[in-house]
Amino acid sequence: MTSEIPRKGLLMLLVALGLTKGGMVKASRDHLVNCTCESPHCKKPTCQGAWCTVVLVREQGGHPQVYRGCGNMNQELCLGRPTEFVNHHCCYRSFCNHNVSLVLEATQTPSEEPDVDAQLPLILGPVLALLVLVALGALGLWRVRRRQEKQRGLHSDLGESSLILKASEQGDSMLGDLLDSDCTTGSGSGLPFLVQRTVARQVALVECVGKGRYGEVWRGSWHGFIASDMTSRNSSTQLWLITHFHEHGSLYDFLQRQPLEPQLALRLAVSAACGLAHLHVEIFGTQGKPAIAHRDLKSRNVLVKSDLQCCIADLGLAVMHSQGSDYLDIGNNPRVGTKRYMAPEVLDEQIRTDCFESYKWTDVWAFGLVLWEIARRTIINGIVEDYRPPFYDMVPNDPSFEDMKKVVCTDQQTPTIPNRLAADPVLSGLAQMMRECWYPNPSARLTALRIKKTLQKLSHHPEKPKVTL
C-alpha cells in the first residue's frame, strides 16, 4: 500500500529509502509493520508496509505540513516535484511514526522561475571559451598555410631539395672573423669550441656525396657560415650540421686518384696530425673543450680541403673526457670502429675501458696506418705504388674480427713499409714514426702531440724537395 500526498504546488519531496546505519533494509513479504497513515489519500488511519515514514513537505506559498504513511522497496511514499530540502524520518516498528515531530531544516523558498542573471555566466563562459578556441585554431591554420605558401615559393626558386633554416643574424661579423682567421689545427674550423647557431638563409641540396652509419652527407649551396639546425623534411625530423664542403673528398678518395710528391705527402700528414692533437688535448677556460678520442680514425674519415690540408671528420663514435668530471661514456661495446684499423688491445678485448688514455692510444695506432697509406702513394725516384688499404695482402677485402685478430694479435704483423722510403731523409723519418705508432704496448706508442711536432720538424728539413701546389 502506498500513501500519497497532494502533487499540486509541491516544491520538494525527499523520499524515504529505508536506510539504516547498517545499510539498506531489505524488506520481505513476511515482515510488514503497521503504520499511522495521515494523508488526504489515506483511506484508513493505518497502513501496512516495510517501514513507517514521516515526511515534512512545504507547499508553494503555504506552511510546512507533515504526512505519515508506509514505505516499501518498490514504491515511493509520495509523488511530487522535489526542491532543495525536506526533512524526513523512517522507522521499522508498528506505529513508530505516530508521535514523531519534524522540524523544517530549510526555510528559503526558491523562485519557480529560473534565475537568468545567475545562469548567464554559466552559459556565456563555455560559449566564449569555444569562440576563443575557434579563433586560435583559425589563426594557427592561417599561419601554417602562409608558411607553406612561402616554402612552396622558395622551393620553386631553389628546387625540390631546398631547405629553409631560421636564424638570427646577430654576431655574424664576429663569427666570420673567427672562421677567416689562420687555422693550423687541421680540425676544420680550428676553433677550440663548437660554434652553434641557426641559419637565416636558404640551403639548396645538390647531391648526396656519402652515407654512413648515422646519417648522410650532402653537397649544398648556402651563403653563410658553419651552423647547425633541426628541421622537418619529407615528413620526418632531421638534425642538420652545416660545414664547409671539401671538394677533394676523403683522404681515401684523394689517394686513389692522386700520387703524391714527398712535400705534399708531408703536408697532408702534418695537417692530419694537427687535427688529432687538437682532439686529444683538453683546453681549459670559458671557450675550452674536453679531450676527445676519435675511436674510428681511418683515411675515409679524414677530409682533404681545397688548400690540400687535412681535417678529421665523423666523430660519431668519439668519447670525451674532462679532468673535472673524470667521466667516460663509451656505451655497451668497447670494440667499435673499423676492424681493419683496430689496435690489438681492441681486437682481443684487453683495452682498459675505464681509462681515457687507452682510447687515445688506439687513435695513434690507426693514425700510423693512415701515414702508411700516404707513404705508399708517395713518388720516390719516379716510383709509386697503387693505393691499397692497410693489411691488403694479409686479410680479405672485408675482414672479420677473427681475421684481424689473427694477423695483428696472434701473428703480430704490421703493414710492410716500402724499402724505397729509406732513400728520402724525410720519408725515412715518416717510416720510423709509423713503427712507433704500432708498438704492441699501447703506452709505449707516440702521443699525438709528439707526432705533430716531429712531422713539423720534418717539414722544415733542409733537404726537403719543393712542390708547386
UniProtKB/TrEMBL annotation:
GO terms for cellular component: BMP receptor complex. Gene3D superfamilies: CD59 (2.10.60.10), Phosphorylase Kinase, domain 1 (3.30.200.20), Transferase(Phosphotransferase) domain 1 (1.10.510.10). It is found in: Membrane. Its cofactor is Mn(2+); Mg(2+). It comes from the Eukaryota. The chain crosses the membrane at residues 120-142. InterPro entries: GS_dom, Kinase-like_dom_sf, Prot_kinase_dom, Ser-Thr/Tyr_kinase_cat_dom, Ser/Thr_kinase_AS, Snake_toxin-like_sf, TGFB_receptor. PANTHER family: SERINE_THREONINE-PROTEIN KINASE RECEPTOR R3 (PTHR23255:SF66), TRANSFORMING GROWTH FACTOR-BETA RECEPTOR TYPE I AND II (PTHR23255). This is receptor protein serine/threonine kinase.
